[in-house]
Design brief:
The structure holds two protein chains of two kinds. By secondary structure, chain A is of the alpha+beta class. Chain A has two domains: about 240 residues, Alpha-Beta Plaits, CATH 3.30.70; about 35 residues. Chain A has a four-stranded mixed sheet with strand order 8-1-10-9. A two-stranded antiparallel sheet of chain A has the order 2-3. Chain A is globular and about 50 Å long. By secondary structure, chain B is of the alpha/beta class. Among the domains of chain B are: about 230 residues, Dimethylsulfoxide Reductase, domain 2; about 150 residues, Beta Barrel (Barwin-like endoglucanases). Chain B is built from 23 helices and 29 strands. In chain B, the strands form nine sheets. Chain B has a seven-stranded mixed sheet. A five-stranded parallel sheet of chain B has the order 3-2-1-6-7. A three-stranded parallel sheet of chain B has the order 10-11-12, with no helix packed on it. Chain B is globular and about 85 Å long. Classes of the chains: A alpha+beta, B alpha/beta. One iron/sulfur cluster (SF4) binds next to helix 2 and strand 3 of chain A.
């Protein structure tokens, strides 16, 4: 039953070691916490319907762009009028037309989202501790603690975060924390008619994704591979990983997503100190700017 | 077939549909089939989101579908496999009319250069000169050749009851106790057949001659699809058909919206019957319907030409004067339709209740009759001539509909217009800020129409049932009260009916008796546990119970199925096909939500309820071979189990022979009719069919490759060019269908471009996007949808863009003989140039979701389209016409 999606149920603690970035204070919680959860997005069955984009906005009460959806112009870039993930758009469906001549080529579609990195740069740099790792091993921003400093925006190698134009704080996908905490699956995967987006325990998703790659390879789709599924890969693996059939850059994804820097003091630690020493906030912003510079110098960024 | 069943297909051809974009939820099944190894094929002028998820995309010019399908038919008929494999031969000779012999009078398009025998001159009816007809066929020569022996030894065809216009008819007499005698009198001698299928007049031989010229080369010439690509498709379809494999086709309005739309679908049915892909799991033709309940709106029709359950509407221009006349003209004596008197009398009881009696022919005379084509475009054509005073426009947006400026002009001639919708649509506002008002050609002060607006509920604000494309009724609950004065359409019509009944209560005019006797009683009773209804909405359950039907003498006794219907007035049933959905006062089967257990083969029989009789796969007797065994283990669905005991005959008490049709689904067959059963001589109804006649709604129980009755434009599909085309027909001298509909012919607002008009060199098709719905009346007002596709665009190929100096996102002007509009150019190689008959033709396409109201606004694409259409169903040709594209 490939279409029977598992619904998140509180499950025994994962055998996986706690993510390195997990705050020490969360360690005791982790023992009783559910398994790490994530998204497997199989782009080969995406039909570009944008149901995920809309379901996400509806559930999370995100605003339409522009003047409440009015007076907007089309982008002219295939059927993509959203163009980027942002504080208002937490799922974004990309359309990549590859047609060297009329009627000859292919049209790739991919629903992009926050990768919920196992070693999340955004979380690392956040000076206020607004970005947390949840008991599901996902990454979430707490709006009430975010001071809008934008550090995370520059730190994310995938260009996921932006300031939400209503709240004025940094926002991104929470993997529907409110839904999964009560055993529901996130709005996007629930709405996806073809199960291009699958939600579930990471270990299970990895097995399923591996089998799907093997199936596609056997059916002749030799270019099929997984992006971000490897726990030994960049950023400790991505808890939202993808099945792709072309180079990562084609989808606007960095080939080697990197932590902004390795030799700086971890942002999360700083943020702990920062919580006591508000006077240091200015200095932290300065550091964040440096991180940005390092990142820009070090090559490709998402989108 | 139904979407869920597509998961059983080994090959799926999506043609005349952009399924992934327009039916994204149903598309999960083709996706799953493909994961299981099925081949997915999209045949379409554009490479769309559907093509992106298919193995093969075959580009064809809009309007050339029959040439493509005819090519596959020719390929199949000439293939060694089809001629050698006993599966195909048995299916064709036993289950279709391939072996039936057609009247020697019949002349094919091959003989008459593009027309069939029987074409007659046509004169418009002066009483209703808006039917748009340009020609007429007399189908007499298309009939089966019949044996000399009369009616299986029974009575001759009754000449008095024959549907010959102007014939002498008996004076209205009280209805007989049973209509069986009438049905018997309609019997004809059985058709002649040649089981070897070698007789030159048998259907198979006619087909072979008819399709012989549809070679791969001709397909390429007419459709623009390279012949290798075409052959790839034809081979995949043939390879994936047979005892062990099934292919399905999916279509939507890109097949219907043509001047020969019904014939395109018929052509596919012909191919699927030849390949044995009917009545079998994963086979068939998926008719993708658009709205959530559009299937329901033809079952309980909003159509002008039929009444509930696909019975023809009584008509003043047919021999329908009395109920006897109507039943004599409409009843087919063999096959299940022989029961039409039961359906009709029960229907009339649902209309007029106790007032309908045998003495007054069950109130037949009170029933309205049509006087011609009253479809949308015919009505608009009459409105344009000032013949229509008022219009109720509920859930429809004609201001953005076909040849939109002509429809807006027609509506400006109304005395009154009622619009009931969720928002102030273009139709509600055309008098105030329509394009003609804003450009100054019309002044608001000159419009005399009084416009009323009724705000509507949304789906979560009321309960009721949807009937989806699977003929499945699914009940939905109410989640919230509607805001303000918003009310359901049911409320609107129920109130209107009550008001009209009160108005006519004291009338002495015979024509008003129908209103006086109308059974109109759906008031909500106070129910314990149910909140008092402040909205005065009628009781949806009462409506569905009446549709299901009950014993006339005791409304609490619901009918459990249409086998219980009687023609003596003792049963009341609005729609026979829905009989069984509400089999007891408190049992609403459409509310069931029990899925099959995982891993167990089944048809999800406890989820909702599908008409007829909860069958999920129609004509499923064909899933077994003539002896009643599954054709193959892989395609097992319904079969004959000779060991099932049948107990005693309830009347005689004698033991009955064992044996029953069983399977995963409800068998679509007489449950105890053994595979080797022969027709009963002189019998009517199902008794006239044998144990190997799966198509029980057909008089001969066969799937019709050749269609002797029921179509007005010919018994076989023929490639005709769309009415507006860049090229001459490469098959015959006849350019377009000789009988297509052309409303407001000769009027300047409905001008048609001549063949190959150099002013309009591009072929254009129109379509929908996932992000919007129809005219946008349910989507352009929603911020989260408006932002996804904010502007109207035209998709043009890079070649055309270069020729015309157009860059991506430039504004361009698109023109047809009717109108011109502006849109952004979306330059893409997903559409492009084709070679048609040696001529380079640019193909372009436009979505038609926009109008000037709402959040996302744009010009009305339909202003470009015309009022021409299919003669069988009066649907317009909005999918293929010609235009010009210039930089604005
Ligand atoms: S993708 Fe970006 S926003 Fe999401 S967890 Fe990783 S770094 Fe943070
Ligand atoms: S809902 Fe699923 S199929 Fe639709 S765009 Fe999103 S990922 Fe693709």
């Amino acid at each position: 039953m490939p279409f029977a999606l598992p619904i998140a149920q509180p499950a025994p603690a994962s055998p996986r070691p706690p993510a390195p970035a997990r705050a020490a204070a969360n360690a005791s919680l982790a023992a009783a916490a559910p398994e790490p959860m994530g998204f497997f997005t199989d782009t080969t069955v995406c039909i570009g319907c944008k149901a995920c984009e809309v379901a996400c906005k509806e559930w999370n009460q995100l605003p339409a762009r522009g003047d409440g959806g009015a007076h907007l112009e089309m982008s002219g870039q295939s059927y993509d009028n959203t163009l980027t993930l942002s504080g208002d758009t937490w799922r974004h469906v990309k359309f990549i037309e590859q047609f060297p001549e009329p009627y000859h080529g292919r049209w790739l579609m991919m629903s992009d989202v926050c990768k919920h990195c196992v070693q999340a740069p955004c979380l690392e740099v956040c000076p206020t501790g607004a970005i947390i790792r949840t008991e599901f091993d996902t990454v979430a921003i707490q709006s009430d603690t975010c001071n809008g400093c934008r550090d995370c925006i520059s730190a994310c190698p995938f260009g996921v975060i932006e300031i939400n134009h209503v709240s004025g704080t940094a926002q991104k996908c929470t993997m529907c924390y409110d839904r999964i905490s009560v055993g529901l699956e996130p709005a996007c995967s629930k709405a996806c008619p073809t199960d291009s987006i699958q939600f579930g325990p990471i270990s299970e998703l990895r097995t399923r994704a591996g089998a799907r790659v093997a199936q596609l390879q056997a059916q002749g789709e030799k270019g099929a591979y997984l992006y971000g599924a490897d726990p030994t890969g960049p950023l400790g693996g991505l808890n939202a990983f993808f099945l792709l059939v072309d180079e990562p850059e084609v989808y606007g994804l960095p080939r080697e997503p990197k932590m902004p820097t390795r030799n700086l003091v971890r942002g999360s630690m700083l943020s702990t100190i920062g919580a006591f020493m508000m006077a240091f906030v200015g200095a932290l912003s300065l550091r964040a700017r440096r991180i940005t510079e390092v990142q820009q110098a070090s090559g490709p960024k998402g989108e | 077939m139904h979407p869920r069943d597509m998961v059983h297909s080994d090959c799926i051809v999506i043609m005349g549909s952009n399924m992934a974009e327009c039916h994204p939820v149903a598309f999960r099944w083709p996706v799953q089939a493909r994961m299981n190894g099925a081949t997915l094929i999209h045949v379409d002028p554009r490479f769309t989101r559907t093509s992106a998820n298919c193995d093969i995309h075959a580009p064809i010019r809009a309007g050339s579908d029959i040439a493509f399908l005819g090519g596959i038919i020719n390929h199949v008929l000439n293939s060694q496999r089809w001629n050698d494999d006993p599966f195909f031969q048995t299916f064709a000779s036993m289950y279709t009319n391939a072996a039936t012999i057609i009247s020697p009078e019949f002349k094919d398009t091959e003989d008459l250069d593009g027309i069939f025998s029987g074409l007659t001159a046509f004169t418009e009816d002066p009483q209703w000169p808006y039917s748009g007809e340009v020609g007429n066929y007399n189908p007499e020569s298309w009939q089966y050749a019949r044996t000399a022996s009369a009616g299986n030894g029974e009575s001759q065809h009754n000449p008095v009851a024959a549907p010959a216009a102007g014939g002498v008819r008996p004076a209205a007499a009280p209805a007989p106790k049973s209509w069986d005698a009438l049905v018997h009198s309609l019997l004809k001698p059985p058709p002649r057949t040649d089981r070897t299928m070698r007789d030159p007049h048998c259907v198979l031989q006619i087909l072979k001659r008819h399709f012989a010229r549809y070679s791969p080369e001709l397909v390429e010439q007419v459709t623009g699809c390279p012949s290798e690509k075409f052959l790839q498709v034809a081979e995949a379809v043939l390879r994936n058909s047979g005892a062990d494999r099934t292919t399905s086709f999916a279509y939507a309005v890109a097949w219907t919206q043509h001047t020969d739309g019904v014939q395109i679908i018929g052509c596919c049915a012909l191919l699927q019957l030849l390949l044995g892909n009917m009545g079998r799991p994963g086979g068939g033709i998926m008719a993708l319907r658009g709205h959530a309940a559009i299937q329901g709106s033809t079952d309980i029709p909003t159509l002008y030409h039929s009444i509930h359950g696909y019975m023809n509407h009584p008509s003043a221009i047919q021999p329908h004067d009395t109920l006897h006349d109507y039943l004599a003209a409409e009843t087919v004596p063999t096959g299940y339709w022989a029961n039409q008197p039961k359906f009709m009398v029960s229907y009339l009881k649902s209309m007029y209740g106790d007032a309908a009696t045998a003495a007054n022919n069950w109130g037949y005379d009170w029933h309205p009759k049509i006087i011609g084509d009253h479809s949308h475009l015919a009505t608009m054509s009459a409105m344009a001539e000032g013949k229509i005073k008022g219009m109720l426009c509920v859930g429809q947006n004609p201001a953005t509909s076909l040849n939109g400026s002509a429809q807006r002009a027609a509506m400006r001639k109304l005395d009154w217009l009622v619009v009931k919708d969720n928002w102030l649509t273009e139709t509600a506002m055309q008098w105030k800020n329509g394009p003609e008002i804003t450009d100054g050609t019309v002044k608001v002060a000159d419009i005399a129409t009084e416009v009323f607006f009724f705000p509507s509920t949304q789906v979560g604000e009321y309960e009721g049932s949807f009937t989806n494309t699977h003929r499945m009724l699914q009940w939905h609950s109410k989640a919230a009260d509607p805001p303000g004065d918003c009310r359901t359409d049911t409320w609107f019509y129920y109130r209107l009916g009550k008001i009209l009944k009160a108005r006519y209560a004291s009338s002495t005019l015979p024509r008003d008796e129908g209103f006086q006797h109308l059974l109109w009683d759906f008031d909500r009773d106070p129910e314990p546990g149910r909140a008092p209804d402040v909205l005065a909405e009628p009781d949806e359950h009462k409506i569905l119970r009446e549709i299901n039907g009950y014993q006339s003498a005791d409304p609490s006794k619901q009918l459990s199925g249409y086998a219980e219907l009687k023609d003596d007035g003792s049963t009341l049933c609005a729609s026979w096909i829905y009989c069984g959905v509400y089999p007891a006062w408190d049992r609403n089967l459409s509310a069931r939500r029990i899925p099959d257990p995982p891993g167990v083969p089944g048809a999800e029989l406890n989820w909702g309820w599908s008409w007829p009789s909860n069958r999920r796969l129609l004509y499923n007797r064909a899933s077994a071979d003539p002896a009643g065994n599954p054709w193959s283990e892989r395609k097992r669905w319904v079969w004959w189990d000779k060991s099932v005991p049948n107990g005693q005959n309830p009347v005689t008490g004698a033991a009955t022979a064992p044996g029953r049709w069983v399977g995963y689904d409800v068998p679509d067959f007489n449950l105890t009719l053994a595979p080797n059963a022969k027709p009963k001589p002189g019998a009517i109804g199902l008794d006239a069919l044998s144990g190997t006649d799966p198509f029980i709604m057909k008089p001969d129980g066969k799937g019709w490759l050749f269609v002797p009755t029921g179509l007005v434009d010919g018994p076989l599909p023929v490639h005709y060019e769309p009415v507006e085309s860049p090229v001459h027909n490469q098959l015959y001298a006849r350019q377009s269908s000789p009988v297509f509909k052309w409303w407001s012919r000769g009027k300047p607002y409905n001008a048609i471009a001549p063949v190959g008009d150099p002013r309009f060199p591009c072929v254009i098709t129109t379509y929908r996007l996932t992000e919007h719905y129809l005219s946008g009346a349910m989507s352009r007002w929603l911020p989260h949808l408006a932002e996804l596709q904010p502007e109207l665009f035209i998709e043009i190929g890079a070649g055309l863009a270069q020729e015309r100096g157009i860059s991506n996102l430039d504004f361009v002007k698109i023109s047809t003989p009717r109108h011109q509009i502006r849109a952004r150019a979306l330059v893409t190689n997903r559409v492009g140039v084709m070679t048609i008959g040696g001529k380079r033709v640019h193909h372009v396409g436009m979505p038609w979701h926009w109008g000037w109201q709402g959040l996302a606004v744009g010009d009305v694409t339909n202003d470009l389209t015309s009022w021409v259409g299919d003669p069988n169903v009066s649907i317009h040709e909005g999918k293929a016409f010609v235009c010009n594209v210039e930089k604005a």
